[in-house]
Amino acid sequence: MKDWLTISQHYRKSHTTATEMGQVSGPGADFASKAQATAANESAESYLSYLQRNADYCDQQAQLFQNALDDYLGIEHRNIVEINKSGPQAGI
Predict the structure, then answer these.
(1) The predicted structure's pLDDT at residue 86
(2) C-alpha dihedral over 39, 41, 47, 51, to 10 degrees?
(3) What is the pLDDT of residue 18?
(4) Angle at Cα 67 formed by Cα 4 and Cα 78, nearest 5°?
(5) Which long-range contacts (CB under 8 A, 24 or more apart) does 76-80 make?
(6) Domain assignment of residue 28, given as a range
(7) What is the pLDDT of residue 8?
(8) How far is residue 59's CA from residue 76's CA, in Å, rounded to a whole number?
(9) What is the DSSP string of 20-84?
(10) Distance (Å, rounded) from C-alpha 26 to C-alpha 32?
């Protein structure tokens, strides 16, 4: 579970640092500059979406591991998303 959360945190950090990628403006007002800027921004949006999906997937996998552990220990399920809101080391 901890490994999945670590991977999720890396994806989220990458997402945060890559947000400026999608703010490209062409160097000129010509068609080619605008088209290149549009293509770059669309690629950045796809990349950011990819990072978000993978971070969410890792959180889901961590939740499944937590649920299995809780079932094994006979305790109420804990929510990984709520644990993550408390900070990276909370609940671990």
Answers:
(1) 64
(2) -170
(3) 93
(4) 90
(5) 80/1, 80/5
(6) 2-85
(7) 96
(8) 18
(9) GGG----SSSSHHHHHHHHHHHHHHHHHHHHHHHHHHHHHHHHHHHHHHHHHHHT-PPPPHHHHH
(10) 8
Secondary structure of 51-69 in HEC code, one letter for each residue: HHHHHHHHHHHHHHHHHHH
Task: Give me 7's structure tokens.
Answer: 């991977």
Residues of the chain predicted below pLDDT 70: 81-84, 86-92
pLDDT of residue 29: 81
* Structural domain contains residue 90: no
Q: Is residue 91 part of a domain?
A: no
The count of other CB atoms within 10 Å of the CB of residue 51 is: 20
- Residue 92 forms part of a structural domain: no
Question: What is the pLDDT at residue 81?
Answer: 67
Write out the H or E segment, with its range, that includes residue 92. Answer: none
pTM of the model: 0.73
When divided into structural domains, the chain yields a total of 1
